[in-house]
Amino acid sequence: MSAYHPLNEAEAIEIARTLPGLFSPGAELTSREIGDGNLNLVFHIKDASASRSIIMKQALPYAKVVGESWPLTLDRARIESEALLLEGTLCPGLVPHVHLYDPEMSLIVMEDLSDHVIMRKGLIEGNRYPLFADHISTFLANTLFFTSDLGMNQQEKKEQVKRFINPELCKITEDLIFDDPYRDADTNNFAESIRDEAEMLWHDGELHLEIALLRHKFLTHAQALLHGDLHTGSVFIREDSTKVIDPEFAYYGPMGFDIGAVIANLLLNYAGQEGWTRDEAERVAYRAYLLETVREVWNGFETKFRKLWDDQIQDRMSEASTAFQDVYVKSVLQDAIGFAGAKMIRRIVGLAHVADIDTLTDDATRERAQRLALAVGKALVKLNRRAVTIDEVIEIAEQQS
Ligand code: ADP
Ligand code: MG
Ligand code: MG
Ligand code: MG
């Protein structure tokens, strides 16, 4: 393959032809770019007659942010492919199979998951996914335990931290989640109708202290290899299957950041439900389903993580102690709650929003959803260091709505 340049659809087909073992020579291939085009190109390449297809994801050297170009390292394609491979060994079946990574073109060739839907879309349509909590809690427990100092050789872990140094993508998170929403920043993006809410965020000292502590933890706590962007747009789902995609933000950070991302995105959908489920009884039931899923995600994570701990750590006496395990798990819960709150807040006033709320067509309904998401988000951030159980999260959501 030649030197790096953004591929067009015809070039994507030519590259697909050269990949060993995928398409037969002379196959008639079609190619369609299906990404949203802000950071990456995503090509869907198909051989209709053999009903075979693949996805090719290529990193672009810039991000389009508020009309400007923001240079962004192509190294994130390496990080994404290495994270997918590692997650695939730790959680078989829960990520797409990677056929190939091409460093020259910053290109990942992977399994086509078009028979799944993006979970955010599925939740907006009111679907339920009975296996999601079990699958995602397995993903979280296995990836977080086995990449941490608990679940791997502590010298090898340090080497692994080096492979996943991701400063530019981390800076996006540091700025957009932990900084800009709390001041009058140019990147902020909110309707004038909720300016009162935004201004309250800029002047809330209690909130600023908690956000500073969370930001500091994100910066310094190299606890486990995170996915780093685990919202419901990074989950492909069916009733019987869950696949996590898009770990280009992967780096060593606090476990609660990934768990909090899942919780936040379930709660953002919860906040939008007034617009999505018009019938009140149905809405109450769907919201109960979402909150039950939050509870099951945490409880599933805790059970599986503690089991791994009990099974894997017997020789290092101090770490084998139950008291240490209890303190450790409690601090992961507290972090998850704080990060969940921060993620909810930024999706309302910060640069990047979520369709669960933004695509509500009625202005008044959308505004109520935004105010609800902010109320829940702020309450979670303020709770975080005091939290003892996941039930407190459920209670906050129920009380605010
Ligand atoms: P980005 O990092 O630019 O957000 P994603 O990896 O999230 O890129 O992919 C963007 C979109 O491309 C997804 O929402 C999905 O529609 C499509 N896509 C990505 N990976 C696959 C895949 N393995 N199979 C099918 N579609 C995919
Ligand atoms: Mg995208
Ligand atoms: Mg991405
Ligand atoms: Mg994505």
Automatic annotation (TrEMBL):
<protein>
    <recommendedName>
        <fullName>Methylthioribose kinase</fullName>
        <ecNumber>2.7.1.100</ecNumber>
    </recommendedName>
</protein>
<dbReference type="InterPro" id="IPR009212">
    <property type="entry name" value="Methylthioribose_kinase"/>
</dbReference>
<feature type="binding site">
    <location>
        <begin position="246"/>
        <end position="248"/>
    </location>
    <ligand>
        <name>ATP</name>
    </ligand>
</feature>
<comment type="subunit">
    <text>Homodimer.</text>
</comment>
<dbReference type="InterPro" id="IPR011009">
    <property type="entry name" value="Kinase-like_dom_sf"/>
</dbReference>
<comment type="pathway">
    <text>Amino-acid biosynthesis; L-methionine biosynthesis via salvage pathway; S-methyl-5-thio-alpha-D-ribose 1-phosphate from S-methyl-5'-thioadenosine (hydrolase route): step 2/2.</text>
</comment>
<dbReference type="InterPro" id="IPR002575">
    <property type="entry name" value="Aminoglycoside_PTrfase"/>
</dbReference>
<feature type="binding site">
    <location>
        <position position="40"/>
    </location>
    <ligand>
        <name>ATP</name>
    </ligand>
</feature>
<feature type="binding site">
    <location>
        <position position="57"/>
    </location>
    <ligand>
        <name>ATP</name>
    </ligand>
</feature>
<feature type="domain" description="Aminoglycoside phosphotransferase">
    <location>
        <begin position="170"/>
        <end position="274"/>
    </location>
</feature>
<dbReference type="GO" id="GO:0005524">
    <property type="term" value="F:ATP binding"/>
</dbReference>
<comment type="function">
    <text>Catalyzes the phosphorylation of methylthioribose into methylthioribose-1-phosphate.</text>
</comment>
<keyword id="KW-0808">Transferase</keyword>
<comment type="similarity">
    <text>Belongs to the methylthioribose kinase family.</text>
</comment>
<dbReference type="GO" id="GO:0019509">
    <property type="term" value="P:L-methionine salvage from methylthioadenosine"/>
</dbReference>
<feature type="binding site">
    <location>
        <position position="346"/>
    </location>
    <ligand>
        <name>substrate</name>
    </ligand>
</feature>
<keyword id="KW-0486">Methionine biosynthesis</keyword>
<keyword id="KW-0028">Amino-acid biosynthesis</keyword>
<keyword id="KW-0067">ATP-binding</keyword>
<dbReference type="Pfam" id="PF01636">
    <property type="entry name" value="APH"/>
</dbReference>
<feature type="binding site">
    <location>
        <begin position="111"/>
        <end position="113"/>
    </location>
    <ligand>
        <name>ATP</name>
    </ligand>
</feature>
<keyword id="KW-0547">Nucleotide-binding</keyword>
<keyword id="KW-0418">Kinase</keyword>
<dbReference type="GO" id="GO:0046522">
    <property type="term" value="F:S-methyl-5-thioribose kinase activity"/>
</dbReference>
<feature type="binding site">
    <location>
        <position position="229"/>
    </location>
    <ligand>
        <name>substrate</name>
    </ligand>
</feature>
